[in-house]
Write a structure and sequence with these properties.
The protein has 81 residues and is an all-alpha fold. Helices cover 68% and strands 0% of the residues.
Length: 81
Amino acid sequence: MMAKIKRQDIVKYIFKIRLNFENAYPTRSDEEFDLLVESWFDILKEYPKEICDCAVNNALKNAKFALRIGNITEEVESLIN
């Protein structure tokens, strides 16, 4: 059985993207960051953690611009199919 994704995984993904793209996801408050994490979690929570981890890394490997949630879900779907 594959592990479920947790909110802390989402935080890690966002920080990973921020480290690679310095202007990615500038949030002005903790509330904005929490909302960003919540929105990503709502979208990714049905997918296994291992696939999401791989999808983020694959998307980063080929990214020329900061990743958006759509880039991640496209990569997830590609890995599943």
